[in-house]
Amino acid sequence: MIENRSPGDRIFIGTVYIITGLMALMCLYPMLHVLFASISDPIRLMQHTGVILKPLGFSLEGYKIVLKNPNIPVSYLNTIIYVAVGTSINILMTTLGAYALSRKGYMFKKTITLLIVFTMYFNGGLIPNFLLVKALGMYNTIWALVVPGAISTWNLIVMKTCFQAIPVSLEESARLDGANDFVILLKVFLPLSKATMAVMLLFYAVTQWSSWFNAMIYLSDRKKFPLQLIMREILIANSTSGNTMDSDVMFLEEVVKYATIIVSTVPVLCIYPFVQKYFMTGVMMGSVKE
Predict the structure, then answer these.
(1) What whole-number distance in Å separates Cα of residue 171 and Cα of residue 177?
(2) Residue 34: which of 51, 57, 58 has the closest Cα?
(3) What is the pLDDT of residues 162-220, one digit of tens each?
(4) In this structure, what are the phi and psi dihedrals at residue 15, rounded to the nearest 5 degrees?
(5) CATH code: domain of residue 164
(6) CA–CA–CA angle 24, 29, 251 (5° rounding)
């Protein structure tokens, strides 16, 4: 109880609370700044300098400009498909790879692990990757976005370490009951790794949702563009057309940028609170150790 603590302890705890509160405010304010700016009056926003502690008037003109873009509904659907397919492939491949590398007795396990870790520091480069994707017939298809990045090396290592922490006795008991590797993975390992799986799922889903560069390189059909690429085009269009717009429209440039950010990040912000509770447990269970 705080009442039973000495004055020195109370001062220390109070200082910790103040510092933690300030750090939380520093993390929260950029999001509030973007939100307030996106619903502010465009003229007042252009005239304002410094931080924004509340909306400067009220206007939804930025959202109207962004949402009236005919490409937004199609790109939203494309992104949902890319996230669903891509994250499913990510989780499947990472789980299978982590299970194989975490078990004892597999041939060339150390060599394969070394080769996988090597890819964290070196890769073929953009042009060889593009030529490879095109040669495999994946250019301008969903597979060009989800297959090349099917496994994140870091996430694979975290998952592998998590599986290694599971007692071997559970695996041996399952084998005595006649279970094979797939049954052991599904019935023993995955239920004991829910927290880590939730963190991996969120990491992969956020990466897929935020990705735009690969789509810009590998997709040529605008009907297949993801949301982030359309958002990027809107930002560029409003940033480079200042000389051709009248003064009234120019005031909308800043508010459109902020509205674009909100539209593209709201789905992720809605998911985070439900998965946050798994962060500490999941990352600690999969922490890298010898």
Answers:
(1) 10
(2) 51
(3) 888 888 888 888 888 888 888 888 888 888 888 888 888 888 988 888 888 999 999 98
(4) -65, -40
(5) 1.10.3720.10
(6) 170
Hey, what are 148's tokens?
């090349």
Q: Nearest Cα to 187, choosing from 201, 172, 174, 176?
A: 174
Q: Report DSSP state, residue 120.
A: T
At residue 220, the 3 state secondary structure works out as coil
Query: Locate tokens 């992720």: which residue?
Result: 268
Q: At what angle do helices 71-102 and 109-118 cross, to 10 degrees?
A: 150
CA proximity to 193, closest of 240, 249, 238, 155: 155
Q: Determine the structural domain holding residue 250 and report its residue range.
A: 62-285
In b/e form, how buried is each residue of 3-31, taking b as 16+ CB within 10 angstroms?
eeeeeeeeeeeeeeeeeeeeeeeeeeeee
| Burial class of residue 247 (count of CB atoms within 10 Å of its CB; 0-12, 13-18, 19+) | exposed
How many structural domains compose the chain? 1
DSSP state at residue 246: -
Distances (CA, A) of 34 to 54, 87, 238, 254: 11, 28, 17, 10
Distance CA 58, CA 39 (A): 6
pLDDT tens digits, one per residue of 143-163: 999 998 899 899 999 899 888
Is residue 176 assigned to a domain? yes
Residue for token pair 């252009």: 46
Question: How does pLDDT run across 85-97, given as a tens digit for each residue?
Answer: 999 999 999 999 9
Contact between residue 233 and residue 46 where contact means Cβ atoms under 8 Å apart: no
